[in-house]
């Protein structure tokens, strides 16, 4: 059963106790973001998600979006929920107050995003894309475009979309064919076909602002000749109201595995009026500020669904009576014991829990870096935060969505056959989670980004933003009575990460295919070490708080036990990953193409 | 006209309440607390009256521990203008609450006090009525519709077997029933504004009220578990059982 309750206690733990929310209000522009405000926002967001969005999750999946004559209708209730969402100010939660946003930090916004993803992933996609488009415009568009479009996008009256993919052009954006012809008035006429455009057409917003990758007539070939254009569905009038329809139409929507409540559109641009965003031929740069923000958000989708699946699995494991405990009946008054008595069910639940809580902690660390990047006074601190974010973005995207999908699958497993049928909503989580491993750059591409771009950047400078704090921490805590037993496996795993990093640097330099062959497993190894570090840090806080806050001892005891589970039962995976990485590409690339 | 809205911090309606092992009460440690749902309806009604130009200021008052200020912030985030926290630790019985509220009314001189008809923790359903008696004001309880008219208020009440409309001359007491309205969600900008709205701190002594309990709780126990049912063979047997065993007909 989809029974989601926002994990507010754990969210407060991550934000206040693990990463120290007091620091936030010392940053310029965040003076008002005090713990009591954070709690009030989390509380209300949780209420909105539980009462308004979550009830539309299964019905939205069942009904899906429908297409007729260029018009897309979202499932029943979505339009009203979107209106309430925007009226509540949630659409602009992290946007600049200059454009009507609430200016709240990423540290808080990422938790609200997580709740949205848990409660109703399909609903959250449209506001997510608007936010991505907002980022690209805010960082790259002319002031005139910003003033004209951003306020309405921040309040959600207008939504956004990212139009990258074309039938012949997915991961390799250098293949974009859509054309943009310059006009005398400084605008462009954009012509071409785009596919897989999430929220490209729908009935929730008054206008849709498409950000479109296209090529100017004089553009160099390949990726260096791509420019970014703003193409609205309706051309706005001077007074800000929507004017005539622009030459952009939705020609169909995809029938797909999951996220049925979100439209995936085929878009046709026919001499549609658009305006250049940023510099000519530098569209990829602008697109990347959108994509980096989106990639972190997609990671959050994995976490959100993993959490929802975990909660549902726990309810069922406590309720479902089958068989007896291996050590004798635990509930002799009942016809059988609840399945939570069985070690394998425990393994499943603990794995989900350890991944979810670990990912939430790691997301909190990255979100803090996003806030420091934006608000810290010290330029060096901003730089460090930027390095760390750049390094962790592919890891958060790929690791969280891989683990999120695994968690939804484990959730289904706990339900057995009742998870595979539709009624309990478990199979929806699996279907919805699967796309997150694909869009915004497949997880394979994320791994290549990590080993190909992020590791070598500035002679390995990005890496230091992770390696140094972890090394220092392990040195400091090695003799800690409580933490010592957790530091030992962490330092072993960290050693494997160092060896794997050196292996890729050395072998990859001679043969890029070696780096490519190691990439996916390296990303996982890196991610597991990052989670391990988070778990030791969480255990540290829990050991302190267990004493200072005895009323909440059960919460902290659970943290400590889960930390131990992660270190003992999950982190050892890194040894196998390193073993496989070490073996190199030879056996992977051995077969001749014709032999497949 | 000012409107005074008392709000109570109670165990959240989603929480499955557990009785303490020694039977001395219910478990409150680490339990999620929220505003009493009937009080949310009261806040909403007051805000709607203000938005319709019938009231000038909405004042939320809470009587309880320091954390009750969170409940007041919730009311402020919904749109109330300011708060009053009367700090009391431990149990406060309806009569003490009504006496404190009488003191607050004396200071604030509201034209209307809108209360929840009852709080979902002890379900007393007494405070509004007691306050009306102490003040000598007219009362319209279990309201499903409230219309402020010249110099008074028409309250449609939910009563057994239907609806009854009473016309009260102001100032008056109204207590809310479930169907009066659907409370709004606090918007993000209002949550942020609420932080800056004033909350005055008071004590029962400020109003000369002794909050010492007058009642003794003998014990607290979980309701008995539901017993297994029986199948009856005929209508006659069912009627006989209802008559003789259940004693309901």
From TrEMBL, chain A:
Catalytic activity: 3-(methylsulfanyl)propanoyl-CoA + oxidized [electron-transfer flavoprotein] + H(+) = 3-(methylsulfanyl)acryloyl-CoA + reduced [electron-transfer flavoprotein]
Stretches assigned to the Acetyl-CoA dehydrogenase-like C-terminal domain: 474-592
InterPro entries assigned: Acyl-CoA_dh-like_C_dom, Acyl-CoA_Oxase/DH_mid-dom, Acyl-CoA_Oxase/DH_mid-dom_sf, AcylCo_DH-like_C, AcylCo_DH/oxidase_C, AcylCoA_DH/ox_N, AcylCoA_DH/ox_N_sf, AcylCoA_DH/oxidase_NM_dom_sf
Cofactor section: FAD
Domain Acyl-CoA dehydrogenase/oxidase C-terminal per the UniProt entry, residue ranges: 282-450
A molecular function (GO) term: oxidoreductase activity, acting on the CH-CH group of donors
Record family assignment: Belongs to the acyl-CoA dehydrogenase family.
Protein name: 3-methylmercaptopropionyl-CoA dehydrogenase
Native source species: Xanthobacter autotrophicus
From TrEMBL, chain B:
Any one GO BP annotation for this protein: carboxylic acid catabolic process
Cofactor(s), names only, from the UniProt record: AMP
Electron transfer flavoprotein alpha/beta-subunit N-terminal domain mapped to chain residues: 23-211
GO molecular function: electron transfer activity
InterPro entries on file: ET-Flavoprotein_bsu_CS (IPR000049), ETF_a/b_N (IPR014730), ETF_b (IPR012255), ETF_beta_N (IPR033948), Rossmann-like_a/b/a_fold (IPR014729)
Pfam families for the chain: ETF
Entries under CDD domains matching the protein: ETF_beta (cd01714)
Superkingdom: Bacteria
Annotated function: The electron transfer flavoprotein serves as a specific electron acceptor for other dehydrogenases. It transfers the electrons to the main respiratory chain via ETF-ubiquinone oxidoreductase (ETF dehydrogenase).
UniProt name for this protein: Electron transfer flavoprotein subunit beta
Originating organism: Xanthobacter autotrophicus
């Amino acid at each position: 059963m989809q029974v989601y309750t926002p994990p507010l206690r754990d969210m407060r733990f991550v934000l206040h106790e693990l990463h120290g929310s007091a620091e936030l209000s010392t940053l310029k522009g965040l003076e008002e973001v005090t713990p009591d405000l954070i709690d009030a926002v989390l509380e209300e967001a949780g209420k909105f998600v539980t009462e308004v969005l979550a009830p539309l999750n299964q019905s939205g999946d069942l009904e899906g979006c429908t297409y007729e004559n260029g018009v897309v209708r979202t499932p029943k209730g979505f339009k009203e929920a979107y209106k309430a969402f925007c009226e509540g100010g949630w659409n602009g939660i992290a946007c600049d107050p200059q454009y009507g946003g609430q200016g709240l930090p990423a540290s808080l916004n990422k938790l609200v995003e997580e709740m949205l993803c848990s409660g109703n992933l399909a609903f959250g996609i449209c506001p997510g894309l608007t936010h991505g488009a907002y980022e690209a415009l805010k960082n790259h568009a002319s002031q005139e475009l910003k003033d004209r479009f951003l306020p309405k996008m921040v309040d959600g009256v207008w939504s956004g979309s990212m139009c990258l993919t074309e039938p012949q052009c997915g991961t390799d954006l250098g293949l974009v064919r859509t054309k943009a012809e310059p006009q005398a008035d400084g605008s462009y006429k954009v012509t071409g076909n785009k596919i897989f455009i999430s929220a490209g057409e729908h009935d929730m917003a008054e206008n849709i602002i498409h950000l479109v990758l296209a090529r100017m007539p004089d553009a160099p070939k390949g990726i260096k000749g791509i420019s970014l254009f703003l193409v609205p569905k309706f051309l706005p009038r001077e007074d800000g109201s929507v004017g005539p329809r622009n030459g952009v139409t939705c020609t169909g929507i995809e029938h797909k595995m999951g996220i049925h409540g979100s439209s995936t559109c085929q878009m046709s641009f026919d001499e549609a009026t658009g305006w250049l965003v940023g510099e000519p031929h530098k569209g990829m740069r602008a697109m990347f500020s959108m994509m980096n923000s989106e990639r972190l958000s997609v990671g959050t989708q994995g976490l959100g669904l993993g959490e929802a699946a975990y909660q549902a699995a726990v309810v069922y494991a406590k309720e479902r009576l089958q068989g007896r405990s291996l050590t004798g009946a635990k509930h002799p008054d009942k016809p059988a014991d609840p399945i939570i008595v069985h070690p394998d069910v425990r393994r499943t639940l603990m794995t989900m829990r350890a991944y979810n809580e670990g990912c939430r902690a790691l997301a909190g660390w990255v979100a803090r870096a996003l806030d420091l990047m934006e608000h810290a006074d010290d330029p060096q601190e901003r730089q460090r935060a930027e390095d760390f974010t750049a390094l962790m973005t592919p890891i958060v995207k790929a690791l969280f969505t891989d683990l999120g999908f695994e968690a939804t699958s484990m959730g289904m497993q706990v339900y057995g056959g009742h998870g595979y049928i539709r009624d309990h909503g478990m199979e929806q989580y699996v279907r919805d989670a699967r796309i997150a491993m694909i869009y915004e750059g497949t997880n394979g591409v994320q791994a290549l980004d990590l080993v190909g771009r992020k590791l070598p950047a500035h002679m390995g400078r990005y890496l230091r933003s992770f390696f140094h704090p972890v090394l220092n921490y392990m040195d400091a805590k090695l003799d800690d009575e409580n933490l010592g037993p957790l530091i030992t496996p962490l330092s072993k795993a960290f050693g494997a990460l160092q060896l794997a990093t050196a292996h890729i640097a050395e072998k990859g330099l001679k043969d890029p295919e070696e780096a490519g062959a190691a990439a996916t497993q390296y990303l996982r190894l890196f991610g597991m070490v990052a989670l391990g570090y988070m778990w030791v840090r969480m255990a540290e806080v829990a050991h302190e708080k267990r004493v200072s806050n005895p009323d909440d001892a059960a919460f902290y005891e659970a943290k400590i036990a889960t930390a131990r589970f992660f270190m003992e039962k999950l982190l050892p995976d890194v040894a196998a990953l390193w073993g496989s990485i070490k073996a190199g590409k030879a056996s992977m690339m051995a077969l001749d193409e014709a032999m497949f | 006209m000012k409107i005074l809205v008392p709000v109570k911090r109670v165990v959240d309606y989603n929480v499955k309440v557990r009785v303490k092992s020694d039977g001395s009460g219910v478990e409150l440690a680490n339990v999620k607390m929220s505003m009493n749902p009937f009080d949310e309806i009261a806040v909403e009604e007051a805000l709607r009256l203000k938005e319709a130009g019938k009231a000038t200021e909405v004042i939320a008052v809470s009587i309880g521990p320091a954390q009750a200020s969170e409940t007041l912030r919730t009311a402020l985030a919904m749109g109330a203008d300011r708060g009053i926290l009367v700090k009391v630790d431990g149990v406060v019985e309806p009569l003490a609450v009504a006496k404190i509220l009488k003191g607050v009314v004396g200071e604030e001189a509201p034209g209307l006090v809108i209360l929840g008809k009852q709080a979902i923790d002890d379900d007393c359903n007494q405070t509004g009525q007691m306050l009306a008696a102490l003040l000598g004001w007219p009362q319209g309880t279990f309201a499903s519709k409230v219309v402020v008219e010249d110099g008074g208020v028409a309250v449609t009440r939910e009563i057994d077997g239907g609806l009854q409309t009473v016309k009260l001359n102001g100032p008056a007491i109204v207590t809310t029933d479930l169907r009066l309205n659907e409370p709004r969600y606090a918007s993000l900008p209002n949550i942020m504004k609420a932080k800056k709205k004033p909350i005055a701190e008071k004590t029962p002594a400020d109003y000369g009220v002794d909050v010492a309990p007058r009642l003794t709780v003998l014990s607290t126990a979980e309701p008995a578990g539901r017993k297994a049912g029986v199948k009856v063979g005929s209508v006659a047997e069912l009627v006989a059982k209802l008559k003789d065993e259940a004693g309901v007909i």
